[in-house]
Every structure is written in C-alpha cells, then in structure tokens.
Design a protein that fits this description.
It is a single chain. About 60% of the residues lie in helices and about 10% in strands. The radius of gyration is 28 Å and the shape is elongated. By secondary structure, it is of the alpha+beta class. The chain has helices at about 5-40, 50-80, 90-120, 125-150, 160-180, 185-215, 270-275; strands at about 240, 245-250, 250-255, 260-265, 290-300, 310. α2 packs antiparallel against α5.
C-alpha cells in the first residue's frame, strides 16, 4: 500500500474517531436528558436536572456526526473487501487501537461523572439507568472494534460486522427520534428566549427598584426615575425598554412596597415553573399575552443590604 493510500485511510480512521465520539456522546446525552425529564427529583440537584440546551446540542451533534461516521465505516469496509487496504496494515491496527484508547478515556470520564452525580445525591434509579446507558454504549464500541481487528477474513462480507453496522444505525436513529419528543420546536424556543429576555430585564429593574427603595424608603414614581443611578445600582434606558414593543415597560405602584411590571409575553411559563426536573426562578411566572407581575419589596435585617423583592400572588 503506497503512502497516498496510507494517508487516505489514516484520514478515514481519524475522522471516523471524531464522528464516533460525537455520535456516542450525543446518543448518551439524549438518553440522559430523557431520564432527567421523566424521573423527577424533588431536590432538583445539579447536574442531574433536565437541560433543554444539552438536549438540543445532542440532537444537533447526532444529526451531523452519525451520517459521517456510518459513511466512513462503509468506505473502510469496502476498501477492506476490495483488498485496497490490507488486513495486517499498520494504519488499520494502530488507528483501531487508538480509537479504542480514546473511546475508553471518554467513557471512563463519563462513568466517573455519573458516579460523582450519584455520590452528590442523585436518585439511585437515575444513576442505575445512566450507568447502564454508558456501559452499553462503551461495550458496543469496544466489542465491535475488538472483533473487527481480530477477525481473520476481511475479503468477504461478514454477518457480524453487518449486524453491528445496521444495529448502530437503528439505535442512533431511535435516540434521535426519541430526542425530538422532548425538545421544543425552533419557533417555540425563539419565543421562549424572547420572553426570557423580558424576564432578565424585569430582574434588572427589580434590583434597581430594591436599591432605590433602600435609599429613599419609597418606590420610584416611574421607571425613568431609576436612570439617574444610585449608590447600589446602575441601569440604562435599554434595560427598562421592551424591545419588541419599542416602548418603556408599563410600571404601576400598587402600595407603599408593592409594584407591578407589565409586558406582552409570547409563551406561558407556569408549567415550566412547576417542572421539578429543572431549576426555575418562580418569581416571574406568567401566561401568554399581556401580563402584569406584582412584586413586594422585602427589607432585610441588615439595612446596608439592598432589599429583596418577593412575588405577590
């Protein structure tokens, strides 16, 4: 086998390694997030909570990595069958064992993280299911590559290799399809991010109002009163402006220490706030549409600290 062929097959194996790592980790992440979503832990311990961002990343990774990996494995097997790559080729042996080494390191790290989550208080049933997932994926990878490097005849189709190949396709497809049942559509995510941007501004305004109340012992008459700044806060006009409506948020004083902030939301987050599988700030629960969210300023024992508001239902 000439140097050009060596370089080509080395490229195939190395790229397949990268695709394998992304695909296997993505499949595991999807299963982990489904476990986190369906088995609710009332303590909501990190990192055992459901993460939509992690699930979206895993789905993206498996969509890209799986076709690359399976295409490369098909090319490698075709070259073995045609005799263009020798069974005893140093490239094939060294890089196969290198793939096993890297896969082992990744899976060991994965198992360590799983055990660490269990020792930090994660539910036993979640730990068992995640451990089974990690061990199954690791076992599938190791058994395939060990069998492939040790098989005697590479000049004809092998039923075991074919079973591994198509079985892996089915499992990757099943993980991908399952992931879609637990992830929101891109349009829904965009609407949620729009609403979250409003909530983030409400939190900034809330902090400024708390600081203002601490300094003046009264609520501001309107949000523009916060723009002058104080010793404990700094806020700009963009922080009090609803970028979607292109106007300052509606603000109403309801009592000496009670106020409300109003905006039009595209989604409702009350169901999300009740979901014990994720951490969620329940101060700003809202329905879709125009909503006014009440807050009460609560003074702390230490007068030097800014007060912290609490929601009013």
């Amino acid at each position: 086998m000439d140097k050009q062929q060596n370089a080509k097959f080395a490229f195939f194996y190395m790229l397949s390694l990268v695709a394998l790592i992304f695909m296997s980790l993505a499949a595991g992440m999807i299963i982990f997030q489904i476990i986190n979503k369906t088995i609710v832990d009332g303590l909501n311990l990190a990192p055992g909570g459901f993460s939509p961002d992690a699930l979206r990343f895993a789905i993206s990774a498996i969509i890209i990595a799986a076709p690359i990996y399976f295409s490369l494995m098909r090319l490698i097997n075709k070259n073995l069958l045609a005799g263009r790559m020798e069974k005893e080729s140093g490239i094939r042996k060294w890089l196969t064992y290198f793939i096993l080494l890297v896969s082992a390191v990744v899976m060991i790290g994965w198992l360590i993280a799983t055990i660490n989550s269990f020792l930090n208080g994660e539910l036993t049933v979640k730990f068992i299911l995640k451990s089974i997932t990690a061990i199954f994926i690791a076992a599938a990878i190791f058994s395939f590559y060990l069998y492939d490097i040790r098989r005697e005849d590479t000049s004809k189709n092998n039923n075991t290799i074919r079973a591994y190949f198509y079985g892996a396709i089915v499992l990757a497809a099943a993980a991908l399809i399952a992931g879609f049942f637990f992830v929101d559509s891109p349009a829904a995510v965009r609407s949620q991010k729009y609403d979250q941007a409003i909530i983030n501004k409400f939190s900034q305004i809330d902090s400024a109002i708390n600081a203002y109340y601490s300094e003046t012992d009264k609520l501001p008459a309107n949000l523009k009163d916060l723009l002058g700044g104080g010793s404990a806060y700094y806020i700009m006009e963009s922080d009090i402006t609803d970028s979607g409506a292109n106007k300052i948020f509606d603000y109403n004083v309801k009592a000496k220490d009670i106020y409300e902030l109003c905006a039009t939301f595209k989604t409702a987050n009350k169901e999300q706030g009740a979901d014990k599988s994720i951490y969620f700030d329940t101060r700003w629960l809202h329905d879709a549409g125009y909503q006014c969210l009440k807050q009460r300023v609560a003074l702390l024992d230490n007068p030097k600290q800014a007060p912290v508001s609490v929601p009013v239902r």
